Amino acid sequence: MFLKIVKILDKVLDILSKGALLLSGLLLLAMGVNVTYGVITRYVFHVPSIVAIEMTKILMIPALVLAVSYVQRNERHLKVDFLATRFSKTVQLIISQIALPVMGLFVGYVLVWKGWVSMEYSRSVIHELSFSVWEEPLWPVRLAIPIGYGLLCLIMIGQLCRGIGTLITGKKKRQPENPEAEKSG
């Protein structure tokens, strides 16, 4: 029963992390178009855009925090494993699939909690606006932090469940999405 739930959770988290990555990519594309627009208006038409810089700042935080869950899910983050490789495969599994997600969940929980508190404070208490002429509200940008790190926490819960399932069954964990990149990296 546990393994069946882990498989369902794994599929749902795969869809969510890919959706977050797609949204992150679209935000980065919008940033690129926006910066190009700003450069063209400034250097070709000699009319600097007020919106270009501000919009790039607004899109950057959501683009980054939404991509983090996909990176964690596919184990593509930077890691220093010179010490971990000296242990047996079981100890490596316990470290990478159980201990690290538990520690990551603690940090992720704090980021979700404090990100939500910060967003609520910005939205309902001080009605925070940017300092630009545009004066857009900043709480939607702050909302991206608890959403992105909330998804990261879900990914770590799934990773923890997979690690426990692997310890129970002795089967290998799921392979990363791009095995060729794994060999060269």
Structure, explained:
The chain is elongated and about 65 Å long. With 185 residues, it is an all-alpha fold. Helix 1 packs antiparallel against helix 4 (139-169), helix 2 packs parallel to helix 4 (139-169) and helix 3 packs antiparallel against helix 4 (139-169). The two termini are 36 Å apart. The mean pLDDT is 87. The chain has one domain (2-75, 82-175). The protein has helices spanning 2-43, 50-73, 89-125, 139-169, 179-184.
Chain-wise SSE layout:
Layout: H1 2-43, H2 50-73, H3 89-125, H4 139-169, H5 179-184
Q: What's the number of helices?
A: 5
Beta-strand content estimate: under 5%
Fraction of residues in H or I helices? over 70%
Order of helices and strands: HHHHH
> Measured on Cα atoms, how large is the radius of gyration?
20 Å
Overall shape: it is elongated
**Residue-averaged pLDDT:** 87
**First-last Cα distance:** 36 Å
Count every beta strand, where a strand is a DSSP E run of 2 or more residues. 0
Find the structural class using helix and strand composition. Answer: mainly alpha
Low-confidence stretches: none
- What does the largest sheet look like? none
When the domains are counted, the total is 1
